[in-house]
Amino acid sequence: MTDTLEPPDEHLVSLSKDGNLDAFNSLVDRYQSLVFSVCYRQLGERTAAEDAAQEAFLAAYRALDQFKGGSFRSWLLRIALNQSRDELRRRMRRVPSRPFEASDPGEPAIDPPDPAADPAAALDARSLSDALERALAQLPADQRAVVLLADVHGLQYDEIVAATGVSIGTVKSRLSRGRERLRQILARHPELFPRSGRLHDRGDA
Question: Can you give the pTM of this predicted structure?
Fold first, then answer.
């Protein structure tokens, strides 16, 4: 059986810039789960997250000529985070905020893909309990974003810097404060969070 090597992002982006829609759809397939996950945990509502994820991909497609290299994943996540922030601002102007619910009913317009199809989604499915979902929702949005990117999706510091648009010092500070706040929240409800899933500080400085 011959393994099929996936084309690198750079190749697909180049084809997409030349108008190859199939190439861009391959990028959508590759990052749909990740973008949806980030939007969902920033917004706490499935329908809003689906809309933000779709808008993020549309915005990325329209702005492809502005992508000059580096990590396409980080560039795409920055767009997704911006879309999520814009949606949060719109929601705050329209209606009072409601508490985050770990699971909202309804069928998604973008299916959160089978975790087996995406290593980031597989990590996500294994490591996040409902208790952690609720704890994450209590973090300030800026801290929640870096915790998600670092501890759930495994991005390196340089990718998080590119995705969030802040300095590495700010990323480290937000990550440290976010992890500490999570520990404090979860410590109040130890019976809800399995020992094997507890967050541990990795000693990042």
Answer: 0.70
